[in-house]
Design a protein that fits this description.
about 575 residues, alpha/beta, TIM Barrel, eight-stranded parallel β-sheet, eight-stranded parallel β-barrel, 23 helices, 20 strands, elongated
Length: about 575
């Protein structure tokens, strides 16, 4: 089959459905690796290919979906054997039929020795050796490696047809927290890509909604939804979407502009047969863009006191407080009131510092804003929440009028607690920033995103490069670790020269010699110069606090010309000390 002519004639290309669904339903195969069956049970794979072709599919996918993971894990020889066998089975299935074969390449795991681009390119070369020229990169959570792989494919085989398909959840984001709309539009803008689309994760109804308003740049649109959503019956995961309903929705997707239509998890030959029959009754269609969504009435904008002051060139003072470790809120509120009386501009609240459980920083931020009218900047770690929880929390903050968040990776869980307390890292701070930036496009009142900047890092150039990446992901400003050494001051000067965002310079009042030693030895990202620590030797508490106030004010003045404000950290709930420093700085 000549796919390009078929599509140019306005005819739909009907892909097959879920190979894995049918294979898992076979006796004694529910736990088996589907791709291994290319060698271990080839007749079963061949029968599934033929079932989809007999149902009306005019294109099938090779049974090679999981081989990207094998390549990345160093099992290239095994992957190549399974890939070659999968190609031969697909060729045998379409023999004598006017049907196409797509070389199926699934997502590649991140953080491996072999990069996604390398894994994709390696498989593309193997498929080309097998004589295949139609390629499907599918179920992708990001576009990492896509541009490189697409360019390589067209350099090796200019006539190759490349379809890139992403797995986007109903709310519009992949499991990596990346906007599906952004992925589709970036990929459609790549010249070597012929078609883009969505598959898996979402059913046909939500897939239709996800595609509205997407700029396809004239590329063909592909849709391969699941047969609804899974449920557990006994010990099996099943999809209950009927073939009739599936076909009705696929007709809607075709009418909306889809040229390539197939199925993913849960879809069977019955689903494809119903779809093929329904599509035969439709006239030929040219490539069209999805209709844009009509903008809803936007509510009136609300002020953002923190950002508005920074944008106006006013210096601000933000003070960090640790949240309570129990449910006694009155002392915390009293501390906040003390700082409000000193006219601080914002309260920033740590999120379970040192990975120890404390009251939720976002709930406290909402309470302070709602009950005291205080400008707040809650910390949000990447450690304790998955994608669902993160989005839910951000929506709640937006509803409460919290307009700023400080994103941090989060301190690691202490070793002795890791058997009971599990870290959850769907994001690093750069990915979380990018996710919030994408989410902002859906919000009536978007967030300003702040991030941490470690001036005390041994290799500060690495930190500075990471900060630039964060800015590229949407970060507007930085709160630095405290400046308590000459090296930190020099690093701050460098950051001022190279970063675009606003900078709040960190000030931490050292309250004793023991405190200085503890910070240097126990807290990551802190460094107190020996000459500062030595000044506290032998001092009583009152004397040490007076010295802390003097040194802190001196440091604040020294960093003033390199910052847009100050970020004061409160040691041991000594709010009176912080108030004294604030009042001195304001005079």
């Amino acid at each position: 089959m000549n796919i390009r002519k078929h599509l140019q004639d306005g005819l739909p290309l009907v892909l097959d459905g879920a190979m894995g669904t049918l294979f898992a339903a076979l006796p004694r195969q529910s736990e088996a690796a589907c791709e291994s069956a290319n060698l271990d049970a080839p007749q079963q794979i061949l029968a599934i290919h033929k079932a989809y072709l007999q149902a009306g599919a005019n294109a099938i996918q090779t049974n090679t979906f999981s081989l990207s993971a094998a390549v990345c894990q160093g099992r290239a020889e095994e992957a190549q054997r399974l890939l070659a066998a999968g190609c031969q089975l697909a060729k045998e299935a379409v023999s004598g039929m006017d049907a196409a074969i797509f070389a199926d390449i699934g997502p590649a795991p991140l953080g491996m020795r072999v990069t996604p681009a390398q894994a994709f390119i390696q498989q593309m070369d193997w498929f080309l050796q097998e004589g295949l020229t139609c390629f499907l990169l599918e179920t992708l959570p990001s576009d990492e490696g896509i541009a490189e792989a697409a360019a390589h494919l067209k350099a090796q085989c200019p006539e190759a047809f490349l379809l890139v398909s992403y797995a986007v959840r109903p709310e519009g984001f992949t499991r990596e927290g990346i906007s599906g709309k952004g992925l589709l539009e970036r990929t459609a803008a790549l010249p070597p890509v012929d078609a883009v689309g969505l598959n898996c994760v979402s059913g046909p109804h939500h897939m239709l909604s996800l595609l509205k308003g997407v700029n396809l740049n004239g590329k063909y649109l592909s849709v391969m939804p699941n047969a609804g959503y899974p449920t557990v019956v006994g010990r099996r995961t099943v999809y209950q979407g009927t073939p009739e309903y599936f076909a009705e929705r696929m007709v809607q997707l075709r009418t909306a502009g889809a040229s390539i239509l197939g199925g993913c998890c849960g879809t069977t030959p019955e689903h494809i047969a119903a779809t093929a029959k329904a599509l035969q009754e439709m006239p030929a269609m040219a490539v069209t863009e999805m209709d844009a969504q009509k903008p809803e009435n936007q509510p009136a904008s609300h002020p953002n006191p923190i950002w508005d002051k920074l944008e106006a060139g006013q210096r601000i003072i933000a003070v960090e407080l640790d949240p309570p470790a129990d449910d006694r809120i009155d002392p915390f509120l009293s501390d906040v009131q003390t700082l409000m009386d000193a006219h601080v501009d914002a309260i920033t609240i740590a999120d379970c510092p040192i990975a120890r459980p404390r009251a939720d920083s976002s709930l406290l931020a909402c309470k302070l804003k709602r009950e005291l009218g205080m400008a707040v900047l809650p910390h949000m770690t990447c450690r304790d929440r998955n994608l669902n929880a993160t989005k839910a929390l951000l929506l709640g903050l937006a509803m409460e009028g919290v307009r700023n968040v400080l994103i941090v990776t989060g301190d690691p869980v202490p070793t002795e607690e890791r058997s009971a307390v599990k870290s959850v890292f769907n994001f690093n701070s750069r990915k979380l920033a990018a996710y919030i930036t994408e989410l902002n496009s859906q919000l009536a009142h978007p967030f300003r995103i702040f991030a941490a900047l470690n001036l005390n890092a041994v290799n500060f150039r690495v930190q500075l490069d990471l900060a630039k990446e964060k800015e590229a992901c949407g970060v507007s400003g930085f709160l630095t670790q405290p400046v308590l050494s000459k090296e930190a001051l020099e690093n701050l000067k460098l950051a001022r020269q190279e970063l675009k965002g606003k900078i709040l310079g960190g000030v931490f009042p050292i309250v004793s010699y023991r405190n200085a030693c503890f910070l240097n030895n126990e807290i990551a990202g802190m460094r107190v110069a020996p000459e500062i620590a030595e000044r506290y030797k032998g001092l009583e508490r009152d004397e040490a606090e007076k010295l802390a106030a003097r040194i802190s004010v001196q440091i604040a003045r020294e960093i003033e010309s390199y910052t847009d404000g100050w970020y004061l950290m409160t040691p041991f709930r000594r709010v009176g000390l912080i108030r004294e420093i604030v009042e001195t700085l304001k005079n």
